[in-house]
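To illustrate the input format used throughout this study, we show a single complete record. The first block contains the structure-token representation of the backbone; no residue identities are included at this stage. The design step must infer an amino acid for every position from geometry alone.
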């Protein structure tokens, strides 16, 4: 089955679901919704990309972004314009300060943590402590890595666990710069291969604002 046929099948499934819920939609409307879920302006744009021989999976930098700034916790970053912003859930972690989520084409989540940090401690030691906590919540397959955020080298931690009928894949970015406050960007998704580049783009946009432990 070609990618175009897969998108048409998704539209048919969406149409059937709407019909079963008692709120039927036209097939053309379902096609438009599927195209937009995949990052296109509409079904015609999707067909044009196909006829030009382009990939039907849009590059992650094609997603429209919006700037989010948190004056209480003094940080800002870019998030997809269609993602929703939610209040922190302290029962998840006392250090959670913001969360952003989308259920389009899978489930996707970003949680921003703001944590006290001992600058005498290495980022690796901080990551190990978090890994020990995550292990107690059934996460596994931990892999540490590094990436560049601007001119700084940032530690990352990948891990996952099964959820329902999918694998919940996660990556943490440890935004540690020698101050007594560490920010951790915690990304999670059921569509890792499709989202990891976007997550990297979002992490690259992260910026500390003056105040609240900044140096």
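Output of the design step:
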């Amino acid at each position: 089955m070609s990618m175009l046929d897969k998108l048409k099948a998704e539209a048919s499934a969406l149409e059937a679901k709407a019909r079963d819920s008692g709120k039927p939609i036209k097939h053309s409307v379902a096609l438009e919704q599927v195209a937009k879920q995949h990052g296109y302006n509409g079904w015609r744009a999707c067909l044009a990309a196909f006829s030009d021989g382009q990939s039907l999976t849009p590059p992650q930098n094609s997603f429209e972004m919006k700037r989010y700034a948190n004056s209480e916790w003094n940080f800002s970053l870019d998030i997809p314009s269609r993602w929703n912003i939610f209040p922190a859930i302290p029962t998840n972690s006392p250090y959670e300060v913001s969360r952003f989520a989308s259920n389009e084409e899978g489930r996707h989540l970003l949680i921003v943590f703001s944590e006290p940090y001992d600058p005498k401690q290495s980022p690796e030691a901080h990551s190990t402590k978090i890994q020990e906590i995550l292990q107690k919540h059934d996460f596994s397959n931990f892999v540490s890595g590094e990436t560049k955020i601007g001119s700084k080298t940032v530690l990352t931690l990948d891990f996952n666990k099964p959820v329902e009928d999918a694998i919940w894949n996660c990556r943490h970015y440890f935004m540690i710069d020698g101050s007594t406050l560490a920010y951790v960007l915690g990304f999670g998704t059921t569509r890792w291969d499709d989202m990891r580049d976007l997550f990297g783009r979002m992490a690259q946009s992260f910026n500390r604002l003056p105040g609240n432990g900044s140096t």
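Structural context for interpreting the output: Helices lie at 3-20, 27-37, 43-51, 123-135, 192-204. The chain has two domains: 3-51, 61-208.
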